[in-house]
Amino acid sequence: MAEYLHLLSEIVYESGLLRQVDSLYFDEDMDSCTSIVLTFQHRIFTITAIASDDTIELYSGNSYLANGDRLISKTEKEPWCQAIGKRIIWAWSLTNQQGYEDSLQFHFSKIDRDSSSIDSEEDILIQLIVVASSLETYWLLKAS
Q1: Pick from 97, 68, 91, 85: which is nearest to 10 by CA?
Q2: What is the pLDDT of residue 114?
Q3: What is the pLDDT of residue 69?
Q4: Which of 35, 77, 110, 116 has a CA 20 to 30 Å removed from the CA of 122?
């Protein structure tokens, strides 16, 4: 089980509303996203692709980023712009068929987690998957 599960709990219960999203790229062509920094009302979290085994890691803060690392704002880009101003009400750590923890999934909502109605049409689910040592972002849609 992921060592960062306590951080998933902190994202849900302590971070507040999402304010900003930044990505770190391995190359200047911006083909390979290696980290995503989520800035919330009360906390900052960094999600990183671990190149040595193609797993995903979650860190509190962004202090591990090297000086000179260039973060590119994704705050106004899809799907992140749909999550700005919302809180995470559910968070998942996903394991692939080979036993590697290589994905995280987040359910963003404007309503509180304890509300009886958590299936708002304004909710958004975002999944981050490590593929070939980089982070791929997926926007999950509910089937009709």
Answers
A1: 91
A2: 62
A3: 67
A4: 35
